[in-house]
From TrEMBL, chain B:
GO terms for cellular component: plasma membrane. Keywords: Cell membrane, Membrane, Transmembrane, Transmembrane helix, Transport. Belongs to the binding-protein-dependent transport system permease family. Residues 77-294 form the ABC transmembrane type-1 domain. GO terms for biological process: transmembrane transport. It comes from the Bacteria. It comes from Niallia circulans. It is found in: Cell membrane. It holds the Pfam family BPD_transp_1. The chain crosses the membrane at residues 12-32, 81-105, 117-137, 164-187, 216-235, 273-298. It is a multi-pass membrane protein. This is Sugar ABC transporter permease.
Amino acid sequence: MKMKKKVPFLLVIMLLIGTVLAGCSLKGNSTVDNSSKDGVTTLLMYQIGDKPENFDVLMENVNKKTEKEIGVRVNLQYIGWGDYEKKMSVIVSSGENYDIAYANNYVTNAQKGAYADLTELFPKYAKEAYDMLDSAYIEGNTVNGKLYAFPVNGNVYAQTMFSFNKQYIDKYNLDISNVKAYKDLGPLLKVIKENETDVMPFSVGQGFRVLPNMDFVLGNGMPFAVDLNGDTSKIINQYDNEQMKENLRIMHQYYNEGYIAKDAATSNTEYPLNSGTWFIRQETQGPYDYGDTLLSTVAEQPIVSKAITDPIKSTAQAQMANFVVSSNSKNKEKAVEFLGLLNSDPDLLNGLIYGEEGNAWEKVGENKVKLLDGYKSNNHMAAWNTGNNKIVYVQDSITDDQIKQRDENIANATSSPILGFTFNTDSVKTEITNISNVMSQYLDGLNTGTLDPDKAIPELNEKLKAAGYEKVREEMQKQFDAFQASKN
Amino acid sequence: MAMLRNLWRNKAFLFMALPGTIWLILFFYIPVFGNIVAFKNFHYSSGGFFQSLRESPWVGLDNFKFLFSSNNAYLITRNTVLYNVAFIVLGLIFAVFLAIVLSELRSKRMIKIYQTSMLFPYFLSWVIISYFVFAFLSPDKGLMNSILTLFGGEEINWYNEQKYWPFILIILGIWKGVGYNSVIYFASIMGINSDYYEAAMVDGASKWQQIKNITIPQLIPLISILSILSVGNIFRADFGLFYQIPRNSGALYEVTSVLDTYIYNGLTSTGDIGMTAAAGLYQSVVGCILVVLANFIVRKFDEESALF
Amino acid sequence: MKGGPNYTVKKKKIEHVQVRTFNKKTNIFFNIMVGLFAFSCIFPFLFVIIISFTSETSLLTNGYALWPSEWSIQGYTYLADLKDQIIQSLFITVFVTVIGTFINVAFTSSYAYAISRPNFRYKRFFTIFALITMLFSPGMVPSYIVMTNMLQLKDTVWALILPMALSPFNIIVMRTFFRRQVPESIIESSRIDGASEMRIFTQIVLPLAVPGIATISLFAALGYWNDWFNALLYIQSDNLVPLQYLLMKIQSNIDFMTQNAGLSGNLSGGLAAIPKEATRMAMVVISTLPIACSYPFFQRYFVSGLTIGGVKE
């Protein structure tokens, strides 16, 4: 009896000891350790997205250069798209040590003091990059008079576009030259609806927003907007605006006609860009997309787009891709130097954006590249959140004319009246939370055309009123007036 | 002196409780002080979280206001409590019923098969379950609507009609947990001494009488303890169930909105750490009071059935 | 053995069929009822399996269907590309589950036993000490600080094990089992015979409490297997990623993409990287099947009915 009980018992103990030992040897294969290696300072940098497959090679190239030029190495850690917000907010809140990070919740964190003040450091340690930056970026990222971000110079303005799946335009000989607004889509959608049963005429799902010619103080999900076609000194509720209401009525009509999926308000059906399951979709485009070139490349099929809003340099675009330096960082100057190098050295940056030179691409002329067979979607980094798009070589398919056009467009775009206006929410936190809740009840229904605006908007406004909307709007107007006065 | 002597006398038990106590201190009692952030307006200082906490200004109960001030507050609290009461009561009845029935089945192999099957819902995340619910209730291609039209009825736009959802959510909530919950009761039943049943059979008791007089009374302490514990969570809702399954459909808000979805939707634009902590604290304090009350009442009846 | 006498605990085989089952007719009735319910529980999972064998084009055009228009093993062949990561994650998950369950049961039982003893002077204190933790939640950020700054365990396998190494709920369950299934008389008599409390615990009580231990082991194991939150917070290295987190990461990436749909052009690398629907379902299958089928292993211990034969040696 005793023998029988002891043997399996002993076995279990040995197994456990074995596994514990195995576990102790389990070490993470990414050193999040921030200490210096052989005396060379290593910067810890957090980036959003997925690691490219040839990450080690790419980073080796980077580190060779940075060690030579500025005497630091970079430890780049990736955090996934979906996880970034949660993980980064914990890292920032807990005061954990890091040097550089792709900014999450930039304004709130800057207001609370989480980031290092770069107003002086930026022009001093990264002068070249600073000079290349469009002034809208500096304005748009100033919080309480100080600059806390190192923005990526890219799509400084954006336009809302209707993007059309060209194969259907050709098939039915459709004329899209006059498409300028939501109401112009009707006849086109009708053609597709009647003739193609498996194609979604207007690809609208949960999260879709009708985008008018306005800019928003707290994002397009909150009812605080400035009408760019009207009085730009007043903060309004966009759902009270007649133009917006008209657009929503049109969406509701499209919904009733079946151009929009019946379950659009709750659906997250993907209508993949590279498929034929959709006809029209809404996209945003900026100067560095070179018209539809980028979109068509990604979609692997020709796409044609028409703009429906004016090109505006808005705060949202200015804050699209910011890098920040932690206020706890012990290497603030070096961090800014590195970012400066990344954003001003074409060889360094392009080695990341396109992959390995010689393998994935080869240089053509002064500033163009030709893609080779080694170029794959997962062995390079994306341009929009890595570095200065201005020094990124363009693909040889882009003409010099397009480049000239791009620069002209950037110069001609106007700045939004609220560029650089950051609203301090401290005194109205409760009301904002309640408003946020009310909005989430109506946003999807209204914007996908599911709800009848003439019935739903009065309801929405009732609830907003009860949630304290007026109080917030007044406070916002007050701060905005002060902001406008200080600009002049 | 007397205290030292008492500690020495109980040394074996203290030693047994030691690892657990250390864990509780490290992973609960130290971090829980962070909840103070609920009473402050959090600002960052250079010394890390706890220093930032110390240096941030006090704001009293400001961070709690949003939980009470909206005119939805009553609606949301009502929803949360009612759903939880349904889950506690119905969940208990079904779990115990299932456990008893399983324990009486003749084929031991079938018991194992059934129980293994009934654990599957526990593993599926609400996200995955929401895909199926969608496959059933989708207005265009859903199964339910196909069946309805087959029988000559009309299609229903499920995600827009409020009246069905309390039932859908309660059924789903119970369905997901009942297999898992019945395991405890089942194990407990297995441990009841057979002698009781033998004696009862000898006395000529029927199956139902046996269950009523032996099985259920033996389960009472466990039932009561688990119920008191569930009461502690009466202000907490299963976020996945109430957010993913209705797909955050605005039209269903009035019946699917509970405290946790309200907090989530409200704080996505501010991300305020103080308000999040305040919300959690609110849920905990209410739960705590209720548990103490419930325990006090149960204690009067039967000390063994009480939690503490 | 030195010291006091030994007690052997004899296990009597319980003839369940005779004493504690339904008669044949009722049995059939309840079998059907429970059977239907059990089927409803695995039905979604069967559906998941079917989807994982559906071709991508069929999914695009017809959505989910009980009988897909086109079968394919694309879902699984794509997974084969991720084979290394998946095997590594499987190893991590198994390791964490096994070690974690063992630690959890050890800590929990000893704590629960202590507070179940009427002659433990401080039992009320320790009971409440553990119970309070069920009512209040420590914040995410402070717990993160304890783990990373104080214990320096960020990005290690222990960050996956320790946060769940004790569960107050299990303590309460175990305490109930100890009280109910271990007759006071046995403990009394062994104490009279001079056995120490530790000896009583390990040699007398534990063998009797096997059903309770099996129950909390099951709960602990299920909890560990399913956990992805700790991985989200603490794990940075690829080789320490558990299975469920892998799945959750993919899911949250997809949510992010659909929420930010207007940026399709920008997130180009991201779009291509999302595994197809069938692959995701295949992942659900392989991350759920092992643990779900482990239940019979635990259940066998529930049914060890015991009688005590006090035999002095």
